[in-house]
Amino acid sequence: MSETKSSPLPREVADAYVDELVALDPVTGTYLGVAESARRLPDFSPEGQEALARLARDTLARLDEAERRPGADSDVERRCARLLRERLSAELAVHEAEEGLRAVGNMSTPAHHVRAVFTVTPTATDEDWAAVAERLRAVPAALAGYRASLALGLERKLYGPPRPTATLVAQLTEWTDTDGSGRGWFEDFVAGGPEALRAELDEAARGATAAVAGLRDWVREVYAPAVEDAPDTVGRERYARWSRYFNGTDLDLDEAYAYGWSEYHRLLAEMEQEAAKVLPGAATPWAALAHLDEHGRHIEGVDEVRDWLQGLMDEAIEKLDGTHFELAERVRRVESRIAPPGSAAAPYYTGPSEDFSRPGRTWLPTMGATRFPVYDLVSTWYHEGVPGHHLQLAQWVHVAQDLSRYQATVGIVSANAEGWALYAERLMDELGFLTDAEQRLGYLDAQMMRALRVIVDIGMHLELPIPADSPFHPGERWTPGLAEEFFGAHSSRPADFVTSELTRYLSIPGQAIGYKLGERAWLLGREKARARHGDAFDLKAWHMAALSQGSLGLDDLVDELARL
């Protein structure tokens, strides 16, 4: 194809991709704040999945041409091109392996996307609620497309894991009757709508709930029996593919597994020292944490913990802005929310819309609790909120005009974002925000959880041997049962959280390792930048430059951070 003056540069190709993606995926459009998306849901059928793959292939072909244009080798164009090529190639690898035909789990299936998008759909006006009603009427078709994909997977003997399948059935059941009153989650959601649309909203919500119940019945009665003898783990080949997708690099999985163990031993020694300050003579750090569950500082009440977490983020912004970060006014706004019932157990974050009309939000799943120990919250909200996910993802949106829309929004590498958030926890410890023994032990417990993720996620999917110096079943090979037992013995989290975590790792293999491996990349990049600048190194300037370069795979992250 001949080069013309009007042919696009890589950033233009990337942004055109976002426009076309939003047309195919209105869930993504809603997260970006595209008003036209609010009435629709994606096509989750095999045909819908292939349409997304076709867009990726066409975009890669356009990128080939764009990279030959003069100016394509500038830093901003080069970074965007590398990210776009890596992301789309990884997505196509997953699609071509037909992973979308066995997407079951407890947090990232099409069914979860359908429900979650309503929590960020605008509801400020009657017109907004009319769009909600239309989107609710689209739920049955969206879930039917998802069911068609799973059915084709059964036909092709591409089986989802049994344990996540059972969890999905339980979640769908909860969504159809959230509190035993016979009302489903969608009916509860529309209860706040205007009276002028009451009949329309209630009818649409009942239809959505009926579609969830229908999907639940099919998964329980047809899908689950068909996959009951399938393995819960994926093996090395599939794990490597998923690891590439979530981490943006072809990892040496055996080295990563060994690194997880080295972090386990380092953190255990540090936790034992901190536990002695909390409960002298404690047999283990987790005995000290169990003591804190009963006798440590805590917040009583769901509304109260939401407000307390909001105050924690507000305080972090006030103390960090101008000292270790330079924050635009719209980046300073972040909201604390309570996650809807039937969510996975882990807290999470949703980013702002592109115009910041919807701010970034942190979400706490209460799992029915009303009493919340402080030690378990502080570093987690540094991770989810400030200076973690919120500062990074909101900053990307803030500087989108200097990057590309793709880099600032949908082109996210999980390990980059999760690595930054874990780095943010460590940063707050380095800056002296965690001098209280309770909070610091809670921080170390959270760090240990991320090390455990590397060990058990890689270990059980690859069925690796447990090292001889392990205090737990040395020499045996990992199984999901051993992984859950090990995780539970080395975590302050309750049993339902541990169960949810293990189901998550079986559902989305390779994602959970990105926290610790991403943090390692961020720390190494900072170390190299510090060595390059010597005494002139400015941490605040480095932070803002690092947060303003958009997402990168771990392949590229260390090199780019070292240049700053």
From TrEMBL:
**One Pfam family cited in the UniProt record for this chain:** DUF885
What InterPro entries would the database entry show?
Answer: DUF885
Which PANTHER family is this protein grouped with? Answer: DUF885 DOMAIN-CONTAINING PROTEIN, GLR0591 PROTEIN
Task: Name it.
Answer: DUF885 domain-containing protein
